[in-house]
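User: For a reading group we're discussing how well predicted structures match intuition. Take DNA-directed RNA polymerase subunit omega. Before you show the prediction, I'll give you the sequence so everyone sees exactly what went in.
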Amino acid sequence: MEESNIIPFEQPKPVSRFPGTPMKSDLVDKAAEILPDPQVLINVVSQRVRQLNNGRAPLVDTLPSMGAADIALIEIIEGKIKVTKEEEEA
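Assistant: Thanks. Here is the predicted 3D structure of DNA-directed RNA polymerase subunit omega, as structure tokens, for the group to look at:
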């Protein structure tokens, strides 16, 4: 296929109120001590990032240089966000 026939597919970049830098690995390590299952940690952080980007207020003090993922990780580290298992109904 010729390059002239290829139309680039451009996706709009998501807009974040917290345009900081990528996640800091030390925060990931500390949050992993609280939520050791990587899948759970990823799901909790991604859900909280979505909430923050949709206008929810951070539960911790923030700096302009902090990204939404950093805020979510700090919230987990400081115990502002907890994961509970729902009891199975018999």
